[in-house]
Amino acid sequence: MAVDLRKPKTLTSEQVAEVLGVPQRALVRYVDAGLLHPHRTRLGTGSREVFDWSERDVQEARVAVALVRDLGLSFERAAPLMEQIRQLEDLTQPVYLQIVGPLEPGDSLQLGVTSKPKNPEQTLLPLALAS
Question: What pLDDT is stored for residue 48 in this prediction?
Fold first, then answer.
């Protein structure tokens, strides 16, 4: 049996931006803020980098855009949620934003993510589906 050593299919930032409906510069901001971690390739001897986006990277980007653009969370607020996203094995299923902390007057809302909501009363909404 032959082993296929070809590079897995990746997308360019331009392609990902088009798929997600965001400007390419927005993707760079998400990467610079530490929300996304596509593979980086340095071009030549200069400092210019390009990103290679795997299918998983695109799925994570879809969730990051939902958190920041669609829900209005800051990069700082979205960062710990994206860390939780990276721990999920399967992003082809819905990912849900969920309240994980007690809601006491004056307390900040504590949010988490899950692919299997345990308490529907604390589940806020599905963030994204792979497509």
Answer: 77
